[in-house]
Amino acid sequence: MARTAANDRPQAALASPEASRIEDDRETVIVADRVTAGYENRRAKTRLIALRDVSLEIRRGEFLAIVGPSGCGKSTFINMIAGFLKPLEGTMTVDGKPVRGTGADRAMVFQDYALLPWRTVERNVQFAMENRGNRPSKAEQAERVAEALGLVGLTGFEKAYPHELSGGMRQRVGIARALVTKPAILLMDEPFGAVDAMTREAMQAEFERIISQTRQTVIFITHSIDEAVMLGDRVAVISNRPGTIKEVVDVDLPRPRLEGDAKSSPRFAELREHIWSLLQDEALGAKEAK
Ligand SMILES: Nc1ncnc2c1ncn2[C@@H]1O[C@H](COP(=O)(O)OP(=O)(O)OP(=O)(O)O)[C@@H](O)[C@H]1O
Ligand SMILES: [Mg+2]
User: Is the CB of 154 inside a 6 Å radius of any atom of ligand 1?
Assistant: First the structure.
């Protein structure tokens, strides 16, 4: 496979996942152990393997960003943590127990928004709190909905229906819906993909601030390397399908990063370039395989 010049440069400063495991003693909350996942096509009697032999440990309160080429299995991975999909091989555990379905401890922001078209914005957000054992009172629900909509900049659109919103606004309703239950684990599949650059940066800053307060565990898929480095404690780089973990990069930039303008630091550029070169290898690999 063709290698880029960037890859030949010394990368000693980029710590390995093993190193980070030793340095950080926070308890492990999500464990993927040799997970292979895929989809059966019953009609054609074929099976597509999306991810192969993926092992990864995520600690409580950690922000793990995931990057990788389109179709490499990122959504598949996050869907297994959410409990929408089971591994074909290996195990996925959350809090020491194999995932057997969805749970109130995990909330998902979907890549395609997944809003209920017949419900208004506020009723879509409120939906996350319904049908739950420890449901907050009506007054508290209303308060939380208003707070979550405020965080994503949608105050004033409470009574609008999804079809009356732009794509980016719909995506923000999805984010509000995930934040409103204050889950221990936030699963986010390209949550800022549909918003413009300025809004995106404002939301990243706000999100970094919220997460630093709530200490939630976040798994965050993105196509933006800058976003992964700005937000992640680590960045997992996934290879082409069948996806495997190519490298887990430690992001040793101080926080807050958005307010602190981490983007202009030389270390940011270094990390960005390293991840870029890993992904470029994958792009080249895909071309060669054709
Ligand atoms: N429900 C499904 N049924 C059959 N195949 C699927 C299904 N969902 C995903 N796949 C296949 O699994 C592979 C991985 O898909 P996945 O959605 O996990 O990729 P991704 O990394 O999230 O891509 P993107 O960045 O484009 O969102 C793809 O080849 C896709 O065609
Ligand atoms: Mg996806």
Answer: no
